[in-house]
Design goal:
The chain has 253 residues and is of the alpha+beta class. The protein has a single domain, classed as Alpha-D-Glucose-1,6-Bisphosphate, Chain A, domain 4. It has 6 helices and 10 strands; from the N terminus they run αβαααββαβββββββα. Strands 1, 2, 3, 4, 5, 6, 7, 8, 9 and 10 form a 10-stranded mixed sheet that branches. It is globular.
Length: 253
């Protein structure tokens, strides 16, 4: 019954959430050099997208892109390598895309790509530690560690047993017409997130007159008590919230 109540509460809305500090637990975990090698793992997820879904996204009409499109599916995902061995797990995967009618240059000027996490729709708070910056005059973050605590309840601004708590390594790539953040969850203080690996891409669209935002990520989540969340619930959760995240970016413009 409490899980049904949790799903029902998703539809309610909260006007604002004050960002709180949730320090990264570096006494429990700290990244190694190998932990930053996540781009090939994420790009493998991209390459394994089915041709059917890829076609639907590539040929989506503009009015559908403006509203947002999201597909979810289940797939065996290579999450990481341990002692030279591939760790493959069944995961729930989402790909969510939305068109924002703001010029690409204006968007990336007003929205710092490295702040993608602190601007998610359901964020309660967290902490960001920058480990490396660009060597040019811009000095933008290219490697950072981020803890984010998100609530699944849009009507409750506070700590609950259902909060999603995760600490990620993030690698950020800046190209002329595209910015991409790659991530992988390395630690979860409340054990809510077993696996989470993916990316968010901000891409110039319509000759730079607008921007296309795409999330593509794979997940294994837990309910309170480290009970694995069924894939059908995870997929519903992902489809709902990732479009909501992009809508939040859109509102910021």
């Amino acid at each position: 019954m409490r899980y049904l109540l949790a799903v029902l509460l998703l539809s309610l809305s909260l006007t604002s959430m004050a960002y709180k500090e949730y320090p990264i637990s570096l006494d429990l975990w700290e990244p190694t050099d190998e932990d930053w090698n996540i781009v090939p793992i994420v790009e493998r997820i991209h390459s394994n997208l089915s041709s059917v879904i890829r076609g639907r996204l590539d040929y989506a009409r503009r009015n559908k892109l403006l509203k947002g499109i999201s597909y979810t599916y289940e797939q065996e995902v290579l999450e990481k390598y341990e002692n030279g061995q591939a760790v493959v797990k069944p995961m729930s995967v989402e790909i969510s895309r939305m068109l924002i009618e703001v010029p690409f240059e204006k968007f990336v000027e007003n929205f710092k790509t490295a702040d993608w996490g602190i601007n998610l729709s359901q964020i309660l708070g967290g902490e960001v530690l920058v480990y490396e910056r660009e060597s040019n005059e811009l000095k933008r973050p290219v490697r950072q560690l981020e803890r984010m605590v998100l609530t699944p309840f849009s009507c409750i601004d506070g700590d609950t047993a259902f909060n999603m708590d995760m600490t990620k390594v993030e690698v950020i790539k800046y190209e002329k017409l595209r910015h991409t953040v790659y991530w992988r969850v390395m630690f979860s203080d409340n054990k809510s997130t077993e696996s989470d690996v993916g990316s968010v891409e901000f891409r110039s669209y319509e000759s730079g007159k607008s921007i296309l935002v795409t999330f593509h990520s794979a997940h294994r989540l837990n309910l309170p008590g480290e009970i694995p969340m069924p894939h059908f619930l995870v997929r519903s959760y992902l489809k709902f919230f990732f479009l909501k995240h992009i809508e939040n970016y859109k509102k910021m413009m």
